[in-house]
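hi! just following up on the protien thing from before. the input was this:
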Amino acid sequence: MSLSIKMEIDALEDVTCLDPELLQLPEVSRFALKTSPQLVEDLFSQWLSLPETGHLVKSLIDDAKAGTKVNAFANFTNVNAVGSNSLPSMFSSGSAPPLSPRSSSGSPRTSKQKSSPSALGFPLKLVREPTQEVIPQFYFQNGRPPTKELKEQDLSKINDLFNNPLNGLQIDEFKTVTKEVCKLPSFLSSALFRKIDVDCAGIVTRDAFIKYWVDGNMLTMDLATQIFEILKRPGCKHLTQVDFKPVLRELLATHPGLEFLRNTPEFQDRYGETVIYRIFYHLNRSGNGSLTLRELKRGNLIAAMQHADEEEDINKVLRFFSYEHFYVIYCKFWELDTDHDFFIDRENLIRYGNHALTYRIVDRIFSQAPRKFTSEVEGKMGYEDFVYFMLSEEDKSSNASLEYWFKCIDLDGNGVLTSNEMQFFYEEQLHRMECMAQEPVLFEDILCQIIDMIATEREDCITLWDLKRCKLSGTRGSNFDRVGSLCS
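and the predicted 3d structure came back as:
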């Protein structure tokens, strides 16, 4: 073998390394080539004996002598394309060694090539390193950190407000920070101040405020979460009625629409309690007295707080804070509580609304079927219990009211109202009509009207979902008023 031929063969051997994939011999495993050197020699000799190989070697030698660029892979590809079918197998079908599973990305040897396979013209699959898509962080245990622009903007305001000889603010000076920096209702100022002033020093320094509000990532939270974090006690995951008392005290002390109450502490206390009861009545749908962040966000308390902070006439804030609404509730309770022991019994409640309630429904209320009493006195309803009752009675458009009266009529507590349960309460109403010499209305006629108006999913019963779905519960003379006629 001449020196030139030997050089060309060495070059091919360096590139291909006698890879069976390059020789297009899939029936020969790489392991067999490595463990059988003689097999390699036989294969190579057989390849050299092919006419196409002779032509390839001769053309490579001619190109080398002429000084032209040698493209070994292009010629080798052409030879393979023509001669691959003429290569006899070295193994019979019965004696061929088992093939090792191969990666779908091609041979690992292809990643060791010194030049791009596409540039060399060899038909190998290009092995590409899998690119990792960088997913930005979306969960932050302590809240999303503020952006640089937002942080600089807030720090500028903080520096201006805390620029005084004390390098801090007292509680009566802190309201400006609450409104301008934190964008919170002003009557949350005291609660925020005490949340930062954990040592009760009576002053909040600039550094302490920055540590809580900026470094604590409070400024990037939504408004509901900010208020929730300010009001809840350390280690708690919910709000209780006690957590709202500082907010109501400051509202009573600072709101111009409640200035006339400052000399009547009793009315101040009752007003604050009533507002809190109304908040939990509408927002705390689980009824366990623990208001969660989810419940706070789903309610409209935050919007009502903002409205109360902007509106000088507190009676225009119909949700939760109206003084007139409180006054009606409190006066009605005072009227029924004849001995003024701040409790109501069955005989007191039966007089509500000019004896509008039936004895059977009053018994259900005092059996605590719709809601467990907080009075802790046997057979007595406290002021909070009465607030829940009256809100359910006067506004039947809310889900809380629907649930209250549904539980009253659902005698067996199975979640459906049957005709027998509804007829049980209507019997007393029928007796009333007879006593007043009114023409009685058959229960079957009323039941038929109720079923038709509610359009129940089942004809033999009414579910709470049926009442909520129909969206007509708050309309006078609507389906729920007709159901309510069974009670009053």
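The longest helix spans residues 265-283.
The mean pLDDT is 81.
cheers
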